[in-house]
Amino acid sequence: ERAEACAGTTPACGGDYACRGCTAHTDCASDACLPDGSCAVESVVVYVSEGGGAGTACSKAERCGTLSAAMAAVTPSRPYVRMVGSLSELGLVITDRNATFLGAAGSIISGGNGPGNVQAILDVRGTSKVELYDVTFSNARAAAIRVDGTAASVNLVRSKILSAGAEGVS
């Protein structure tokens, strides 16, 4: 197969010249490999990275520097959050929206901005459905992730929670 012929859920051309699903973000021009092996189109991805800018475009060219800015850019037609690096966030609330976080090696969300802090790093509320792929949570003073309500859900895939104060997921 020629690389140009590879598309859909088999967008990458393997060393044997056969089309296959992406297995790494670098397999995709958008830098966003989806869980089904297809590459996301850039326009449906919100980009955030350590050292990103203060802007709100959150595009591949102009990445956001905070998860709060990235979540403000998440919409039903732009549900993917591509994370790079270590981001410090505390009290990030996601209410009545769906988001899929696409991390990679070194994608860390760190919280705990001091003793006595009882906020979760990530608080998922309402009807939110949040999926976290390859994301590590670290230094939570309370719960790393809190799920509020019976309709909200969190799915962690190849993700870790390190050093949570109360519990990892509450």
Q: How do the helices and strands follow one another from N- to C-terminus? A: EEEHEEEEEEEEEEE
> Whole-number radius of gyration?
17 Å
What is the spatial order of strands in the main beta sheet? Answer: 3-4-7-10-13
Mean pLDDT: 87
- Contiguous low-pLDDT stretches (5 residues minimum) are none
Strand portion: 25-35%
Count of distinct strands: 14
Distance between the termini: 48 Å
Total of helices: 1
Helix content: under 10%
What composes the largest sheet?
5 strands, parallel
Explain what the structure shows.
- The protein has 170 residues and is mainly beta.
- It has one helix spanning 67-73; strands at 12-13, 19-20, 45-53, 80-84, 86-88, 92-95, 99-102, 108-110, 122-125, 129-133, 136-140, 145-147, 153-157, 160-164.
- The strands form four sheets. It has a five-stranded parallel sheet with strand order 3-4-7-10-13, covered by helices on one side. A four-stranded parallel sheet has the order 5-8-11-14, with no helix packed on it.
Features:
four-stranded parallel β-sheet, 170 residues, mainly beta, globular, single chain, five-stranded parallel β-sheet
What is this entry, summarized?
This protein is mostly beta strands and 170 residues long. It contains 1 helix and 14 strands; from the N terminus they run E-E-E-H-E-E-E-E-E-E-E-E-E-E-E.
List the helices and strands and how they pair.
Elements: E1 12-13, E2 19-20, E3 45-53, H1 67-73, E4 80-84, E5 86-88, E6 92-95, E7 99-102, E8 108-110, E9 122-125, E10 129-133, E11 136-140, E12 145-147, E13 153-157, E14 160-164
Parallel strand pairs: 3-4, 4-7, 5-8, 6-9, 7-10, 8-11, 9-12, 10-13, 11-14
Antiparallel strand pairs: 1-2
